[in-house]
Amino acid sequence: MSTHTESRRLGGLVVAAGAALLAVGCAPEPAPPEEPVEDEAHIRGHIAGRVAHHLCAGVFVVGRDYERTVEEVVAQDLEPFDELRDDFRYDVDFETRTASVTGDGFGTRSAEYNGDQGCTILPIGFEDVVFEPTFVERRTPDPESTAWPTGNVDAHHDPPPAEVDMAALDAALDWAMGRSEHHTRALVVVYAGKILGERYAGGFGPNTPQISWSQGKSIAAALMGAAMQAGHLDIGLDDPAPVPEWRGEDDPRREIRIRDLLNMSSGLDFLNLGSDDERSRTHANEHGRIYFEGIDVFEHAIDQPMDTLPGAIFRYRNSDPLTVARIVQQAVEARGDDWLTYPQRILFDRIGARDYVLETDAWGNFIITGYDYGSAWDWARFGLLHLWDGVWPTPDGRPDRILPEGWVGFVSTPAPGAELLDYGGLFWVNRGGSHPGAPEDAYWALGAMGQYTAIIPSYDLVIVRLGPSPGDYSAYMSDVMGRVTAAIDPP
Questions:
Q1: For a pLDDT cut of 70, what percent of the chain falls above it?
Q2: 117 near 134, Cβ under 8 Å?
Q3: What is the tens place of the pLDDT at every residue in 371-385?
Q4: Is the dihedral of CA 63, 65, 67, 70 positive or negative?
């Protein structure tokens, strides 16, 4: 793409095009402020950091498959979802592959695209990331000559199975896409191992990487399971979490087990204020800071005290899956392996997934709890891996056990501290009937604004839904799952 700079001022105020390019270099890492400032301008700076990320990723990460103009990204990804402020001025520089947002009082917040590490919010004072971006080679067989599910050949049922009412299924998919308030961009139904039906919004397709938000937490679980199965991580669910900073003799965190982290029941005091609290874009929201501030997310996760016993209470907090990822990272690097390519090697290559982009912070740590991009077909493959108990059918016919035996049973079973029977091992579960339209055995990877990969063993079914829904997506997806399963009479 040619060198180009596009600038606009929101609210109808125009900034001259051709703004100066951002300087990119390896500047020394500035020291963080001792006491964070929490005035209104600083909070708007946090909002601007997230806007810069979304603008960067919408142009460059989604643009790996679906190229949109800056104006289209703003109109589709930002304006409908209250991400903008009237005084924000935004700029996308295609030479430095940087998006920046400037506003009154806080200066400029920027995010830069680093290829296979996606877009990174630069901490205040940084001109570049402080890790070396790495090309992640996809070592999967040619998808156009390899059979589904590892490749794309013969991916669809033709003809559909007799037990499927295709008219009812088509009506279900049309109904789902017709709920325009949910902005569904991809919807894929996989039954008995093959695609039964799919729908896409204009421009989006089966291989378009889309922001998957907290579906990445389920990737973190799968990475830990795959590392265990491969012998790269010599640990069991009931072993203490091998976090060196927690191993002090009098440190109560030494009692946190691997299963506690996977059940999001560590007991760490890691405040999650959600998005509606007036403090949601401040430092007080420890859970949310990783999405707007530009901090070292792994250090932020582990540098927390405890406020309850491990295993006692399920609480939805980013600290636990981030710590899971850090544990895997340390084991991988201790072996001398490269962390930034590890998810592709140990997991994605083996299931034929080619479109995942796991984004990092400025230090090269995966923000795997939310800034992860995946395509509809690759999420379908991820769902099939779990539907098939962690065993993948390779193109040469050999079964490849990627996840340990019993792992899928663990992640799909309610955590002891989940009183509503709605959360397992970094997957949501339906044992408590949170989605009444879905079968009780359904479980799903779930991200904000309705990113779903639902696995329904009793129907031999995987349903993937992607798109930025601002509404009640739980009720919507409960209806989607109910309508799809009603069209199938499993033998």
A1: 92
A2: yes
A3: 999 999 999 999 999
A4: negative
According to DSSP, residue 27 is labeled: P
Residue 20 has pLDDT above 70, yes or no: no
Which pLDDT belongs to residue 41?
A: 82
Dihedral sign for Cα atoms in the order 11, 13, 19, 23: negative
Instruction: Output the CA torsion 421→425→430→431 (10° steps).
Output: -40
Cα–Cα dist 137/30, whole Å: 32
Tokens 């209250």, located at residue: 82
CB proximity list for 236: less than 8 A, separation 6 or greater: 228, 258
Query: Could you give the CA distance from residue 471 to residue 450 in angstroms, rounded to a whole number?
Result: 9
Cα torsion 167, 173, 174, 178 to 10°: value is 160
The backbone torsions φ and ψ at residue 226, rounded to the nearest 5 degrees and listed phi first, read -65, -40
Q: Residue 164: which region, alpha, beta or left (left: phi > 0; alpha: psi -120 to 50)?
A: beta
Q: What is the pTM of this model?
A: 0.92
- State the chain's mean pLDDT as an integer: 91
**Count of CB atoms within 10 A of residue 89's CB?**
20
The predicted pLDDT at position 33 comes to 41
At 257 the pLDDT is: 98
Measure the CA–CA gap between 359 and 94, rounded to whole angstroms. 19
Whether the Cβ atoms of residue 328 and residue 227 lie closer than 8 Å to each other: yes
- What sign for the dihedral angle of Cα 168, 169, 174, 176? positive
Structure-block tokens of residue 356: 């995942």
The tens digit of pLDDT for each residue in 420-429 reads: 999 999 999 9
Which tops the pLDDT comparison, 130 or 27? 130
Question: How far is 246 from 320, CA to CA, in rounded Å?
Answer: 14
Residue 454, by phi and psi: left (phi above 0), alpha (psi -120 to 50) or beta?
beta
What are 279-282's contacts with CB under 8 Å, separation 24+? 281/43, 281/46, 281/47, 282/38, 282/43, 282/46
Report which of 37, 18, 43, 48 is spatially closest to residue 111, judged by C-alpha positions: 48
Residue 244: partners with Cβ closer than 8 Å, 6 or more residues away: none
Question: Who contacts 119 (Cβ-Cβ below 8 Å, separation ≥6)?
Answer: 53, 56, 57, 60, 61, 99, 111, 112, 113, 359, 371
Instruction: Give the whole-angstrom CA distance, residue 227 versus residue 94.
Output: 37
pLDDT at 271: 87
